[in-house]
Design goal:
The complex is a heterodimer of chains A (314) and B (449). Chain A is mainly α and 314 residues long. Chain A is built from 15 helices and no strands. Chain A has two domains: 47 residues, no CATH class; 232 residues, MetI-like fold (Orthogonal Bundle), CATH 1.10.3720. In chain A, α12 packs antiparallel against α15. The N terminus of chain A is likely disordered. Chain B is of the alpha/beta class and 449 residues long. In chain B, α2 runs antiparallel to α16, α9 crosses α10 and α10 crosses α18. Chain B is globular. The N and C termini of chain B lie far apart (94 Å). The chains are: A mainly alpha (314), B alpha/beta (449). Chains A and B meet through loops of A and α3, α4, α18 and α19 of B. Chain A: One of its GO terms (cellular component) is plasma membrane.
Chain lengths: 314, 449
C-alpha cells in the first residue's frame, strides 16, 4: 500500500515539468538566439577573420583574401618575434607582468593582509577591508586617471611628497613604466585575494590555533604549519583566477597607452592596437584567437583542479 | 466638452506626428575643434557664423556641432569605425591624405554619389585653385570640399636666438649642420633648454610624419615613394634622416626626448616653445595661425616681436628634392559627407553653404589662412603672405596611396625607436623595411642601397 504511491510519485517527479517540451523550447529560443548572435557567431567569426587579411581601411577592407595561416606565421616570425612592439615581446612582457603583479604582488600581499587582520582589533580589520575593497570597486577610468595624476613628473602627488621629505623627483611613467603598472595592478587587485584568503582563514576551526598557542607556537609557525596547508585549495583557485584576469587586463593602457616605445604593451593592448588603431582586423583576430586558447588552457587547469577537489569527498 | 478637447488633442498629436518627419531635419557636424581649445577659430566659425546663417536660410533644418577635443588619430579612428557601421556625423572635418584609404575601404563615397548629380553644378568648383583641387580628389572624383592648404617651416624664437649671439632677423640655415650649429649655440648658453623640436614618435601621429620625417627626408633628395609609386624601404636618405634624429635627441640632447615619447607630447612641444625652452620648432603655418595667437593656450607673449620663421634647409645646398636648397610639404583639410547620411540633400546644402565666399570670409576674419578658393580675400597677414609666396612654389604633396596611412604609422614607429635610443638607425630601418613589405607586398617596395 505505502510503496506504490511513493514510486508513482517518484516517477511523476522525474517527468514533472510546468511546460511541455515544445513550450519550453519556445521559451528558450529568444535567449538561445541572443547567445548565438552575440557569443557563438562572433566566436566563429573571429576565427574565420583570423585566416583573412581583412582591414578596415584600404583595398583589403572590401575584398579581403583568404591567407591561410599567414597571420599566425607573421605573429610567430622568428626574425621579428622578440622585437619591441611585436607579438612575442608583448607575450613575454605579459608573462612577467602576471608573475610580478598577480602571483607575487596580489597573492602575497593579499595573503599577508588577510593573515595580519586575523589578530587585530575588529575596527582596524573593518577599516583595512574598507580601504582595500575601495581600491577594487572604483571604476577603472577613475583610478586610471587618479594614478596618472599621482605619478606625473611635474605636478604629481608622489613627487610632491618625495620633494617634501627632501628626495628628488622621479619620472616614473617614462623611466619605470613596467614597474608602475606592476605596482598599480598589485594595488588594484590585492583586495580580491585578501577577501578570499580572509574567508578561507575564517573557515579554520579556532581550536587549532588555540592548541598551537598553548604549545607556544609563533605567528609564523601557525601561519606555515596550520593556516597555509589548510587553505591550499583556496590558494590554487585564487592564483588561477588572478592569473587569468591579469593576463586579460586592459587598464594599464589608461596609465601608459602601452608606451613609451611599447614598453608596457601587454597582449590585450597589443591586440587593441593591431585591430583598432592599425585597423588590421585579420591579424588582430589571430591575436585574439591565440589569447582565447591561452585562456582556455588556464580554464581547463582551473576546472580540473575543481573536479579533483570534489572527487575525494563524493 | 471633454470629447472636443480629446479630439483637439488627438488632432494636434496627429498633425505634429505628420509634420515633424516632413520638415525637421537634424544634421550633425563634427570637427576636431573646441571653442577655447584646439582649433578654436574653426569651432567659433561653425557655431557662431555658419550654423545660424544656414538655419536662417533653411528653416526646419537643425544643425548641431560636435566639438571633438581628442587627437587627430583618435578622430580618424572614430570616423573609420562610425562610417563602417553606418553611424557618425552627417558632415565631418577630414584630412585629405586619408581619403584614398577610406575610399578603398568603402568608408567614403564621392559627393555626387552621396548627394546626387547636382553636386557637380556647384559654382564653387571653378573657384578652387588648381593645387587645392587635388586635396579632396581621388580617382577623378571629389570626396569633399577643401577648406585650405598649408606649408611647413622652422618657427623661431628671435629673442633666444639673439641671446645666443645669432642675428635672428636674417638667420636662415642653408644646411642641416647650420641648423644644428644654431641649436648647439643656444644649448651652450642654456644647458637646460631643448632648442630644437623635430617631431618624432608614435604619439604625435601624422604630425611626426609630416612636420618631422618628411621635412628631413625631402632634404636628402628622396621621398617616401619613388617615381613608380613604390615605397622606398632602404636608402641613404632614410639613414641620414634617422641619424639626424639620433644627433638631436640621443647624442647631443638638443631636443626634448620626453616630448616625443609621451602621449601628450605635441602639446608639451608647444608649451616648450611658449616657455622659451625650445627656440626652433618645425611646424606648419597652423602653428602660427592656431597655436600661438593671443588668447590661446600656447600663446607666445609679445608674439610680433619674438616669433619669426625660416625655411627648412636641405641636408646640403642643392641636395633637396628636385635639387632644391630648401624644402617644404603641404597637406590640406576640408569637410566630407557621411556616405550613410539620412539627409544627403541637406548635408550637401550645408557643406556647400559653408564653402561659399560669404562664410569663408567670416572664417578669414577669425583666422587668416591659405584658402582653397581664389575668390576669397585673405585679410592682411604679413606672415601668411610671406610664407605662402616663398614656400608654395617649393612644396611637395604626400602620395595619394591607400596604403600611405599604414606606412606613415610605420614611419612614426621607426622614428620613435631611434629617438628613444632603443634601436640604431640601421636596425630601425631594417624593422621599417620588414613592416612596410608586410603591408604593401614585396612587389611594391624598393631598396636604394
Amino acid at each position: 500500500m505505502t510503496t506504490e504511491p511513493i514510486t508513482t510519485e517518484a516517477k511523476k517527479v522525474r517527468n514533472f515539468s510546468l511546460l511541455s517540451n515544445r513550450a519550453g523550447a519556445a521559451f528558450l529560443t529568444p535567449a538561445g538566439l541572443l547567445v548565438s548572435v552575440f557569443v557563438i557567431v562572433p566566436f566563429f567569426w573571429v576565427i574565420f577573420v583570423s585566416f583573412t587579411n581583412r582591414t578596415l581601411l584600404g583595398r583589403t577592407a572590401l575584398n579581403p583574401e583568404f591567407v591561410g595561416l599567414a597571420n599566425y606565421l607573421a605573429l610567430f616570425d622568428p626574425a621579428t618575434f622578440f622585437q619591441r612592439g611585436q607579438f612575442g615581446f608583448s607575450l613575454i612582457l605579459t608573462t612577467q607582468f602576471v608573475l610580478a603583479s598577480a602571483l607575487i604582488g596580489q597573492a602575497l600581499l593579499g595573503l599577508l593582509l588577510a593573515w595580519l587582520i586575523q589578530t587585530v582589533p575588529p575596527w582596524i580589520k573593518r577599516l583595512t577591508e574598507t580601504f582595500v575593497i575601495a581600491a577594487w570597486i572604483l571604476p577603472e577610468v577613475v583610478i586610471g586617471f587618479a594614478w596618472f595624476a599621482f605619478l606625473d613628473r611635474d605636478a604629481g602627488t608622489l613627487n610632491m611628497m618625495l620633494n617634501a621629505i627632501g628626495l628628488p623627483s622621479g619620472d616614473f611613467l617614462l623611466d619605470q613604466p613596467f614597474w608602475v603598472i606592476v605596482v598599480f595592478n598589485t594595488w588594484r587587485g590585492a583586495a580580491f585575494s585578501m577577501m578570499l584568503f580572509n574567508s578561507a582563514f575564517s573557515s579554520i576551526p579556532p581550536s587549532y590555533f588555540q592548541a598551537a598557542d598553548v604549545a607556544g607556537a609563533t605567528s609564523w609557525q601557525k601561519f606555515r604549519d596550520i593556516a597555509v596547508p589548510l587553505i591550499r585549495g583556496h590558494i590554487v583557485t585564487n592564483l588561477i583566477l588572478i592569473t587569468m584576469w591579469t593576463f586579460n587586463t586592459f587598464t594599464p593602457f589608461l596609465l601608459t597607452n602601452g608606451g613609451p616605445s611599447y614598453r608596457t604593451e601587454l597582449v590585450s593592448i597589443y591586440n587593441y592596437r593591431v585591430a583598432f588603431q592599425d585597423f588590421q582586423f585579420g591579424k588582430g583576430a589571430a591575436v585574439g584567437v591565440i589569447m582565447m586558447l591561452i585562456n582556455l588552457a588556464f580554464a581547463l587547469v582551473y576546472l580540473s583542479i575543481g573536479r579533483k577537489k570534489k572527487a575525494p569527498g563524493t | 466638452m471633454s470629447n472636443r478637447l480629446r479630439a483637439l488633442a488627438l488632432g494636434l498629436v496627429g498633425a505634429t506626428a505628420m509634420a515633424a518627419p516632413a520638415f525637421a531635419v537634424d544634421l550633425d557636424v563634427t570637427c576636431r575643434c573646441v571653442i577655447g581649445g584646439v582649433n578654436s577659430a574653426t569651432a567659433e566659425w561653425i557655431e557662431n557664423s555658419v550654423i545660424p546663417a544656414f538655419e536662417a536660410a533653411n528653416p526646419g533644418v537643425n544643425v548641431r556641432l560636435n566639438q571633438f577635443g581628442g587627437e587627430d588619430a583618435q578622430l580618424t579612428q572614430q570616423l573609420a569605425l562610425d562610417f563602417s557601421t553606418g553611424a557618425g556625423p552627417d558632415v565631418s572635418a577630414f584630412d585629405g591624405f586619408l581619403i584614398p584609404s577610406f575610399v578603398e575601404g568603402g568608408l567614403l563615397k564621392s559627393l555626387d554619389e552621396v548627394a546626387g548629380a547636382e553636386v557637380n553644378d556647384w559654382s564653387g568648383w571653378d573657384a578652387l585653385s588648381e593645387g587645392s583641387r587635388a586635396l579632396m580628389l581621388y580617382d577623378g572624383k571629389y570626396y569633399g570640399i577643401p577648406l585650405g592648404t598649408d606649408v611647413r617651416m622652422i618657427h623661431t624664437r628671435k629673442d633666444i636666438l639673439a641671446e645666443a649671439g645669432i642675428d635672428a632677423d636674417t638667420w636662415q640655415p642653408t644646411s642641416w649642420e647650420e641648423l644644428l650649429d644654431a641649436a648647439r649655440a643656444i644649448k651652450a648658453i642654456k644647458p637646460d633648454s631643448f632648442p630644437l623640436q623635430i617631431n618624432a614618435g608614435v604619439a604625435m601621429g601624422e604630425a611626426t610624419t609630416m612636420q618631422g620625417y618628411w621635412l628631413l627626408l625631402l632634404g636628402t633628395g628622396e621621398s617616401v615613394i619613388d617615381e613608380n609609386g613604390k615605397f622606398i624601404v632602404e636608402s641613404q636618405g632614410i639613414l641620414d634622416t634617422l641619424n639626424l634624429y639620433k644627433t638631436v635627441y640621443v647624442d647631443e640632447k638638443l631636443g626634448d626626448q620626453r616630448a616625443q615619447l609621451l602621449a601628450d607630447g605635441r602639446n608639451r612641444s608647444f608649451a616648450n616653445f611658449r616657455d622659451g625652452v625650445t627656440a626652433l620648432l618645425l611646424e606648419g603655418d597652423y602653428f602660427y595661425r592656431s597655436v600661438t595667437p593671443e588668447g590661446s593656450e600656447f600663446a607666445v607673449a609679445n608674439r610680433d616681436e619674438v616669433q619669426g620663421w625660416a625655411k627648412v634647409p636641405a641636408q646640403e645646398p642643392g641636395k633637396g628634392i628636385r635639387g632644391q636648397d630648401f624644402v617644404t610639404i603641404s597637406g590640406g583639410t576640408g569637410f566630407v559627407l557621411n556616405p550613410n547620411t539620412d539627409s544627403p540633400a541637406e548635408a550637401w546644402a550645408f557643406l556647400s553653404f559653408m564653402n561659399e565666399p560669404e562664410q569663408l570670409s567670416a572664417f578669414q576674419a577669425l583666422q587668416p589662412r591659405i584658402t582653397a578658393r581664389t575668390d576669397v580675400e585673405i585679410p592682411d597677414s604679413p606672415f601668411l603672405t610671406e610664407t605662402s609666396q616663398t614656400l608654395l612654389p617649393l612644396t611637395t604633396a604626400r602620395p595619394n596611396d591607400p596604403n600611405y596611412n599604414a606606412v606613415s604609422s610605420e614611419i612614426q614607429r621607426m622614428t620613435e625607436a631611434v629617438v628613444s635610443g632603443e634601436l640604431s638607425p640601421e636596425e630601425a630601418m631594417a624593422q621599417y623595411k620588414a613592416s612596410v613589405t608586410a603591408i604593401v607586398g614585396a612587389d611594391n617596395v624598393v631598396s636604394l642601397l
